Amino acid sequence: MSRRGWLLFVAMGVIWGVPYLLIKVAVEEISPSVLVLGRTVLAGLILLPVALARGHLRGLRAAWLPILAFALVEIAGPWLLLGVAEQRLSSSLTGLLLASVPLVAALLAWLGAGRWTPADDRPDVRRVLGLLVGVAGVAALVGFEVGSGDVGAVVAVAGVSVCYAVGPIILTRWLSDLPGLGVITVSLLVTALIYLPIGVAQAPAELPSAKVVWSVVGLAVLCTAVAFVLFFELIAEIGPSRATVITYLNPAVALLLGVAILDETFTVATAVGFVLILAGSVLATRSRGPGRDADRVPRARRSVDSDCEKVAHPVAEP
């Protein structure tokens, strides 16, 4: 991997590990729906002129139904559920539980092998073992770190995991030939329209504290608008398969930030659960053979292809 590739990789790993902290701070004073509205409006308006200037909104109208489905599954639903979950759970625990997304994605891939995924994604002994190891890690976290009153929050996180696993399936089947930046921009703006009525109705009577305002701004500008632009650059640099490896780095960043800044607890069960989830995810999702062709495309060729920025299995962004 080139130096530029490593810089983009590390940047994305850190940037998409930060949202859990910012969401936790924001939902202390504003409702999850208000947070989703503020984040999507600001991020969508930032990306809109960029998408327009690059011509990445052309051809999207014909795909309005799958784009709507993607917006609901990848943004509108999980971002609300994340806010609901973090009203009860710590930011670090939420991030660790979402490390299970590759496990859910692997299970869906197996169930859909031959339809929306390649036939060689069918399960074998190694992948089944990975799934079992990952589930054991989730069980360790839930069993030792979650109180009896937080079951609803865990269910919300489970819903987020399913949404983030289904989103790439929609992209693969119906949106893979469209400009990724255009799809993301429209999805953000569609989600903003969906949340506008309830967000306005639940808006606080007084302006939230500065830390909450800056958390919303940080989520929208850095963790959404800037992050997606950098992520498409990362895909162009190292290919979609290797780009998704940042999924394993994000939870570690979320854990470190939660412990260091919010004084959240770190226990032996936390460490064991995290290691098991990561190990299971790697085993369950690792390809049998050589990397995908997209990952072997020379950099010069990828830079040309990146002008179109086709959607290619983006990592679930918290």
Low-confidence stretches: 290-309
What is the quaternary state of this protein? Answer: single chain
Radius of gyration: 19 Å
Give the tally of β-strands.
Answer: 0
N→C terminal distance: 26 Å
Biggest sheet details:
none
* Structural shape: globular
Q: Helices and strands, in N-to-C order?
A: HHHHHHHHHHHHHH
What do the pLDDT scores average to? 83
Q: Given the helix and strand composition, which structural class is it? A: mainly alpha
Percent helix among the residues? 55-70%
Percent of sequence in beta strands = under 5%
Number of helices: 14
Q: What is the count of structural domains?
A: 1
Describe what is shown at a glance.
The chain contains 14 helices and no strands.
Give an overview of the whole structure.
There is one protein chain. With 318 residues, the protein is mainly α. The chain has one domain (3-290, 301-305). Helix 4 (64-86) crosses helix 9. It has helices spanning 3-15, 19-26, 32-53, 64-86, 91-97, 101-111, 125-145, 151-175, 180-201, 210-238, 240-243, 250-261, 268-285, 299-305.
Keywords:
single chain; 318 residues; mainly alpha; 14 helices
SSE layout:
Layout: H1 3-15, H2 19-26, H3 32-53, H4 64-86, H5 91-97, H6 101-111, H7 125-145, H8 151-175, H9 180-201, H10 210-238, H11 240-243, H12 250-261, H13 268-285, H14 299-305
Helix pairs in contact: 1-10, 2-5, 2-10, 3-4, 3-9, 3-10, 4-8, 4-9, 5-12, 6-8, 6-13, 7-13
